[in-house]
Every structure is written in C-alpha cells, then in structure tokens.
C-alpha cells in the first residue's frame, strides 16, 4: 500500500486488510515530528496522512491524522489574480463572433436579419388599422386619466390621507405642519398649471391656424398619446409577430427541455435535484442560417450520448431531423456540446453554386472547393500530398462527390487524370475529354486496364523517387514534389490523379483483387510525397472489398449515409463511431451529405457541391480548352490508345524462368519463393504463407492451365522427403500449346 494512503487504525475494530502494511506508530510519529511542514487543519483538501492514532485525539480514538497534502490549486478568491485570470481565460469568448468569421456565414446572418425584420414590419404594418382603432378607443380613458392625475397633483391630493390621519390622531401640530406644506405646494403648482394651460392654449391657437395636414397630424399624435396613456396594463397595444417555425428562436428553455427528453438517466437525475445540471457557457446566438447553442452537459454525460439520440433531440426541439446537428467540441471536455439548429433541413437548404462552376482554374497544391457545411460555409480539400476515400450505401451521392474532385483536378492543367468507373454506367464520362486514361465497365477488361494503371503508377513511384533523389537539395528541400517542380515538364513530377469509382469491383476481383490491393496500398503510402493522388469510392466498405491496408492509410475520408458501425469505421477509421462520428444518422433524404475527416482538425459535416450533368460537361469542356492551350492534353484525351498493355505477368512463362531446364521437377513452395523473388508485386503475397498454403496457391493458379501438381521426392539429410511440386515438362507443353493457339488465332 502506498504510504500516503490512509491506513485503517490497527487498534480499531476493522482489522487491516490482507496485504496492507501495518505502520509502526512510534516510528512514524518520530518521523512526523521531524517534518517541519505544519499541518493545515483548516484546509479543505484531501488529507493524506497515515492513520497513526491522532496526536491530538489520543492514540486510540480512531481519528485519522497526518500531513495535509494540498491537492487543489489556491482558490481564485484568495486574491490570487493570476489564478483568477487563468480562470477567466478558460471561458474567453472569441473577438470576432462565430457568424462573422466567414463571408458566407456573415451574408447568411445578415440576410436572415433582413428577412426577420422585414417580416416583423410587414406583420405590424398590416395590423396598423387595428392599432389605430384601438388607440382611438382608448384615448378618452387616456384623457380622463391625464386630467385626474393632473388635478390630484395640483391640489396635492396624495397628501390628503396623511392630513386626515393627523386629525384622527388629534395631533394639531402635525396637521398644521402638513396644511402649511400643502398650501405652499398648491400655490406653486397652481402657477405651473396656469402656465401649462396658457402654453396649451397658445399651442391650440397655433394649430388652428396651421395647415390642415398639421392639424390632422397633431390630432393623430394626441390620439396616439392619449390612447397609449389609456391602455390597460395587462393588454399591450402591439401583437407579437408570430414567427414562422423555421426562424423560431432557440432559447435555453427549449434546449434544456429537449435534452431532458433524451432519456439519459444522468441528465434526469441532475434536473430532479433542483438545478438543471445543464449549463450554457456561451449565449445562444445566430450562426449562419440557424441557431447555435453551446452546452455543458451534466457531469458524466458525453456528447456521444446525445449524438446517439439525435432523432430524440430533434423531437425534443420540435424540429425536423435534418435541422438538428449536435457536435462535440474537441478542444474542450467530452461533455461540451454544440447544438446547431438550422432554419431549414440541410438537404432542402439552397446550396450555393460550386465556385469553379462558371469560371476559374484549380491548383491541386491549394485547397479546392468541395462543398458546404450545414452553416453554408465553403469546405475545401487539399488534395496534394493526400488520398481520398469516399464510402456510402448506393444512391447516396458518392459518384457526385467524386465528380466534384475529378472536375477540380481537370481544372488544374498540370494534373494528369486517370479515371475508372467500374459500374459501367458512364457516370464519370464527363472526364473522358480530359483524362489521360479513362475506363468504364464492370468487365474483366476494364478492371485489367485499371490494374495496369495501378502498375504504371507503382512503377512511376520508383521513377519519381529516383528523380527527386537526384535533384539538388535547394530545389527539393523536403524531398517531395513542390509546385515549381511539378510545373517543369521535363521532370515529369506533375500531379497524377487516379480516381476509381466502385473500387469494390477491383479489390474483390478473383484474379486482380489481391494485386490491386497491394499496389493501391503502396501508392497510398508512398504516392503523396511524389504527387500521386489516389481517390477511391466504394458502396461496399467491408474488409473484402476494401483492403485494410488501403482503408487504414487514407488521409481524407468522406462517409455519406451507411447502415452500420462497421461500414462507418471502415470509411472514417477505427473508433469514429465510438467517438460520435456516425454517418448512420443520415437519412435517405440526406443525399450528398456526409462526415468528412482529414480536411480540417475536426470532423466536418459536408454536402458535396451539386454539379448536374450539363454543368459538369461545360466544366470539362473548359478544362479541355485550358489544357489544349497549355499543351497538356495527353493520352486517350487526344486519341492516344494506351500502349499495348504489357500483358500481365504470365505464370507459365515465369515458371519456365524460375525452373531451370536442367531441373525436371521442383517443389511448389520452393517455386513460389523463386517466383516472389522474380516479381514481388505479383507473387509476394503467396510467398508470405506457410509451405502448404504456398503449394495450394500455386496449384489453384495452375488448374486453369490444365496443369496438376505432383508428388516430388527429394533426399534431405539422408532422408526421403515428399512434397507437392511442379513438373517442368508439363509447363513447357502448356506454353507450346498456348503459343500455337495464339498464332493460329
Ligand atoms: N450534393 C448533392 N446534393 C443534392 N443531391 C445530390 C447530391 N449528390 C447526389 N445527389 C443526388 O443523389 C443521387 C444519387 O447520387 P449518385 O449517383 O452520386 O449516388 P451513388 O452513391 O454514386 O449511387 P450508386 O451507388 O448507385 O453509384 C443523384 O441522382 C443526385 O440527384
């Protein structure tokens, strides 16, 4: 047991627990006597003394005593201005209000204000005849009230009760004093009254001689004044403008009520105790086209608990689900919640146009516009030195999101674009006029072409690495591509973008899947520094369709609506779901809306820019013209067919290469090791397995060629060892047959 832990008094009824150390009282007392630090009994801090039988209370009274160890910092009230400042610093408010930080947000807020007051004004203006009638009706009462108040004042009727009391008490002295005071008061007030009446008379004569409009204006003013003075205290003249639901104010009562309706026991407990347990560290304000409330949840309740019940929160706030966005504040404690309540559902709100839709070029070394968040702020992505993974269930806007990135890349004339859409619907055909390589289809040929591109990029990694390594240090200080290097055509270090839609077709392909996974992983890991960017979109984010080596290494992740935690975490990364980043909370209506990770420090909710087909085509045409002018149109975009794809490695040829002519038969696992040495990118995965699995993999690959593995016996250390193996003559026969068929065809 730690020495600072209070230990039970050995003399008490409670015997020390097993394993506890019994402290020798005399020794400890002697030690404490040497301790020069006085015990501060007034402190409220945790006492860390050992149970020694207190000195003051006597040895056997069971009271704990010992050295007081202060665990709380000195209180701010104790005149410690530094602590006080630090306390205040914790809650410092931003100098520029949230809504004024971005142009779009400021515009939205001002527009909202204008609409709000325009509506209030229109509401009151249409009711003005009613107000005039009300005022006229109240004016006589206002006149009577004014006359009565004036008369009471002039003749000092307020003092009457005091004088009557003096008479009743038979107190002539007080009565005389009060009467004298009243006479003096009434004399002075009568003079003021006469002056006021004369002024009124003069004003009346002036009005009588004034133009008619002035007479009417005076009468209206008088009626308004008297009507206002005659208003009953409980019935205000002006009706409150009833605000439409979408601009209804959010206030602390509504938020507290909604949080109380979530069914979270700790919140209910805290509220039952009298206090709400829910506090608001900042005022509830307008923030873009909605309201923003910052809330400290009761102790022990986390933002994730609330995010989990977003639908209940929306019900509690009486707002559509698409308007309610609870978010954590990552730099604060896990109980600090921001609830942003939009005026309109995010999916229905008018989305600003994509900034590059009509004019402008992109530079992949700078953030490119991608979409807008729920507050209407532009969200941009820096593609350079990163990779992107987009995941969603079908028809949620994955291809539209990918299209935004492809078009942005097309608008950077330096970027070489390779686009493969493996569904075969031509969703990305807009890229065809600008793409160096383009493929559309779910067939083996398109997938093979896609793998060829991955191989080319993989090879390009080596070439670029060598080029970068050979450059002088001053040109490439960080050993990565810079905008200046990318612009030098001779170096071939321009941005290279490979976008693959429906990449699950690629990674789950029987023949190419494994190789594609390995190539993609290598490109994702090493490509960014060399200007190679991989953008993958999938509607099946599971372990088979998205290799973990790929999903674990992507930097920018966009997850539109998915059905479960597994898919959510495959796209957004492990623990995303646990941390409250849940794309499962989106509804079918939330098309194009998803969680975006990696573009900023905190997760963002973003709706990708909506670019319809005609707009996309116009953008692609603009990009093509710009590339043509810059002399940067290459590949299929100018009709250059891909070079005859170096037919993928041929297993039979490779077998003949690794089994020398003099070796009639070879063990399968030995052959696999040799193949892996020959082409690690193709056969490397086989070689990482046990000997039996190596032999099975080779046997399965040989089956389509009509070759069966055989038992091969060898003498090892004087013993005969049998293993599965390959008969070289069978391979040679298959090769001859293949070549004969090819030349005949
Ligand atoms: N940002 C957006 N704003 C509004 N609607 C969108 C947005 N993005 C996509 N949509 C709508 O969602 C529909 C589906 O989009 P998309 O074709 O991109 O889905 P998908 O996930 O690629 O589907 P699939 O899995 O079948 O390929 C589109 O027809 C479009 O109308």
Automatic annotation (TrEMBL):
UniProt-annotated binding residues for ATP: 392-399
Record key words, sorted: ATP-binding, Membrane, Nucleotide-binding, Transmembrane, Transmembrane helix
Keyword Zinc-finger attached: no
Region (Disordered): 1-80
Transmembrane stretches, start-end: 186-207
Domain FtsK per the UniProt entry, residue ranges: 365-569
Superkingdom of the source species: Bacteria
Bias-annotated ranges (Basic and acidic residues): 23-35
Region forming the signal peptide: none
Polar residues: compositionally biased ranges: 1-14, 38-50
SUPFAM superfamilies named in the record: P-loop containing nucleoside triphosphate hydrolases
PANTHER family in the cross-refs: DNA TRANSLOCASE FTSK, SPORULATION PROTEIN RELATED
Protein's name according to its UniProt entry: FtsK/SpoIIIE domain-containing protein
Organism: Streptomonospora wellingtoniae
